[in-house]
Amino acid sequence: MRVLFVYREDVDVDGGAAAVMKETSRALQMLGVEVETTYELYPKVDGFDAVHVFNIWSPQSAWEQLKHLRRTGIPIIWSPFYLHWCECAWASLAFELIYHHRHSPEELEKIKSLFAAGTLEINGLSRWKPNEVIPGFHFALKEMLACTTHVCAASYQEMQKFAQLTGSNEIPFSVTPHGVNAASYINASPEPFINAFGIRDFVLCVGAVDRRKNQLLLIEALKGTSLPIVLLGPAFEQDYLDACKILGGSQILFTGRLSLDMVASAYKAASVHVLPSYAEGAALANLEAAVAGCAMVVSNRSSEFEYFGAAPFYCNPHDPESIRTATFKAMQSGAVEKTRWRDLGRHVAETFTWRKTAELTRAVYEKVLSGTNN
Question: Residue 284's Cα: distance from chain center in Å?
Fold first, then answer.
């Protein structure tokens, strides 16, 4: 079986989606599947049995690539990493309104109050509408879906939201959960991070600093406390990072992207890992934090319950008080409920491996190539 993995260079080739692709490729090759990877927009598919395309972003190039592959007639397996952007699109406009426009103190207080209540309307967008993160996004999703033979999703929640948004009720799909290289995090030491940055027992947030991952409301939630906050990851939205630094001041340490060893050390040095995202697929950072034994706060908007059950503390990403309460509860639990977090780490390490991801993915290929795609 020869499968061509297809990605693009107009997205972060070191981000989460790319990491899933690379780890799945390695694990599949261990199972005897021959895998090659291309970043070409219009790849040649001669000699391959199927193509496996990764990531919905950037939508225009992803759509263009899928249309090209569809014309070749080769079976197309698609891992879209669909994120339900609707609420985030509204929150992003609210961020612009609050931080990039001048208002009187009274006007600003009114806008913040409406945002907190979820009743703020901006340019026709409101909190619960099917807002588009970019114009034409939802139409593009339907067209991309029409190009594919089979969808590999990270969770049932991903497919549920995808089907609701596109109105598609006959999508051949399989759930192929993400994995984690548990040993790298279980055996890590806190000392390298502590020695490098001179900080321990902090609130950690691993991931790109951006509107979707919602670090600004994490900072808002913990403002006025003595808790240091470490933001670990790249920043592709400089204005958002600047707003985080201004709001957090000396409470914030932004490290940028670090080596995997240093990330593992950070989980061990932290008191809690908090990722209050508006939208996630199945964040690798949460899997890593779990196997490292770090207490966790996760968003109640995404697929984390399918991975972690009731073990973490869940927060409403729109509500700073919810984030704050969950953070303090998780920190307290991390100090006195060691078994809770060890059990979660063991569950994740045993359940979510890249080998299992590869086995499920190979089963998809076999189903598609045998003509039993349903």
Answer: 7
As a whole number of angstroms, the distance between CA 203 and CA 177 comes to 27
What distance in Å separates the CA atoms of residue 367 and residue 359, rounded to the nearest whole number? Answer: 12
Contacts of 294 (CB under 8 A, 6+ apart): 204, 267, 268, 270, 272, 273, 334, 341
Q: 3-state DSSP helix/strand/coil percent for the chain, to nearest 5?
A: 50, 15, 40
With beta carbons less than 8 A apart as the criterion, state whether 38 and 70 touch: no
Mean pLDDT for 247-253 is 97
344-371 as b/e, with b when 16 or more CB fall inside 10 Å?
A: bbebbbeebbbeebbeebbebbebbeee
pLDDT band at 207 (very low <50, low <70, confident <90, very high): very high
What type of residue is 299?
A: S
Cβ contact 278:255 at 8 Å: no
**Burial track 236-271 (b if 16+ CB lie within 10 A, e otherwise):** ebeebbebbbebbeebbbbbeebeeebbbbbbbbbb
Q: pTM to 2 decimals?
A: 0.95
pLDDT-derived band at 127, boundaries 50, 70, 90: very high
What is residue 371's predicted lDDT score, i.e. its pLDDT? 85
372 close to 213: Cβ distance less than 8 angstroms: no
User: What pLDDT is attached to residue 99?
Assistant: 86
Q: Residue 255: in which H helix or E strand, if any?
A: strand 252-256
pLDDT in tens, 44-80: 999 999 999 999 999 999 999 999 999 999 999 999 9
